[in-house]
């Protein structure tokens, strides 16, 4: 007997943002009460379920409905690691985890994140510019046709960069 395993498509975004790595990080860092829920149309709520250390935590992200409500609200529970490198690069990486303090909610579809994350990379010689690289491997869960998922992610990533650019400009002002 054989088995079939499903790996979601991989999506990557890259862009140069008109702000320092510090300002970009302030907008995207994975913290409860952070700015992400204010500007990211795909993040309704973000909470820390358990802080394991200063750099590792178990987090729950909820999303609103999307694609004219074809995609219903979702929740994702991940272990998230943040790291700052000597060159000033800041990284957030996450992967799905089960946690006893975060059972599935009846009104949300539980999604599943394979390894994903982002890198805020200083642009050498340009302190007010940041290269941002994001990558996603997400199983949205539920019963969505692949065509819906395929149409959602590219526009979602494009919107992410556009809205983040507006957020960092507002933060700098």
UniProtKB/TrEMBL annotation:
Instruction: Enumerate the UniProt keywords alphabetically.
Output: Lipid transport, Lipid-binding, Transport
PANTHER family linked to this entry: PROTEIN CBG07384 (PTHR46374), STAR-RELATED LIPID TRANSFER PROTEIN 5 (PTHR46374:SF3)
Q: Which protein are we looking at?
A: STAR5 protein
Query: What's a Pfam family this protein contains?
Result: START
Chain ranges of the START domain: 1-173
Free-text function comment from the UniProt entry: May be involved in the intracellular transport of sterols or other lipids. May bind cholesterol or other sterols.
Q: Which organism is it from?
A: Donacobius atricapilla
Upper taxonomic classification of the species?
Eukaryota, Metazoa, Chordata, Craniata, Vertebrata
UniProt gene name:
Stard5
Which Gene3D superfamilies does its entry note? 3.30.530.20
Any one Gene Ontology BP term: cholesterol import
**GO molecular function terms listed in the Swiss-Prot or TrEMBL record:** cholesterol binding; cholesterol transfer activity
């Amino acid at each position: 007997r054989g088995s079939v395993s499903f790996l979601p498509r991989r999506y990557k975004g890259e862009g140069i943002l008109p702000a320092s790595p510090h300002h970009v990080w302030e907008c995207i860092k994975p913290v409860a009460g952070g700015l992400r829920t204010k500007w990211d149309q795909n993040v309704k709520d973000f909470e820390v379920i358990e802080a394991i250390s200063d750099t590792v935590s178990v987090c729950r992200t909820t999303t609103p409905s999307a694609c004219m409500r074809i995609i219903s609200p979702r929740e994702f529970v991940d272990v998230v690691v943040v790291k700052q490198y000597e060159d000033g690069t800041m990284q957030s990486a996450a992967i799905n985890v089960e946690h006893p303090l975060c059972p599935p909610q009846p009104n949300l579809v539980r999604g599943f994140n394979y390894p994903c994350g982002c890198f805020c990379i200083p642009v050498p010689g340009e302190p007010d510019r940041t290269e941002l690289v994001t990558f996603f491997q997400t199983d949205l869960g539920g019963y969505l046709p692949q065509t819906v998922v395929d149409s959602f992610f590219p526009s979602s990533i494009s919107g992410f960069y556009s809205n983040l650019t507006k957020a960092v400009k507002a933060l700098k002002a």
